[in-house]
Predict the 3D structure of the following.
Amino acid sequence: MEILKIAATDVSPEVIFDLSTNTFLVKGKSVVTEVDSFYAPLIDWLEQADGNIGNQRIDFVFDLEYFNIFSSKRILFMLYRLSDLRQSGADVNVIWHFSVEDDDMKEVGEDFACMVNLPFEFINNTLQPELY
């Protein structure tokens, strides 16, 4: 299956979906206004992956600084697709990163975890100490 790579912009996250290396990453900010044009290819890729994954382990990483309400709905759609993959036999694990200063992002992840049948691992991103 083809690798899906999208570079981050000021309004959209970096995306890497690569079955061969088990790299599934959505990282950055998502404040896109045309959410369907951005997220439809991601959701389509996950739908097409269903027949190619089998019982493979998938560690799907969300490392989002911020996202708007429009993006949150599409992120939930992605989580539903991951839940479908899990029901088809894939070993799907969601890794949800959040910032030490932003407990709201952790809370949103916990809310998503309650909405889908997927195991979530929450990772608190720690800031590197500044060197003087």
Summary: The chain has a mean pLDDT of 92.
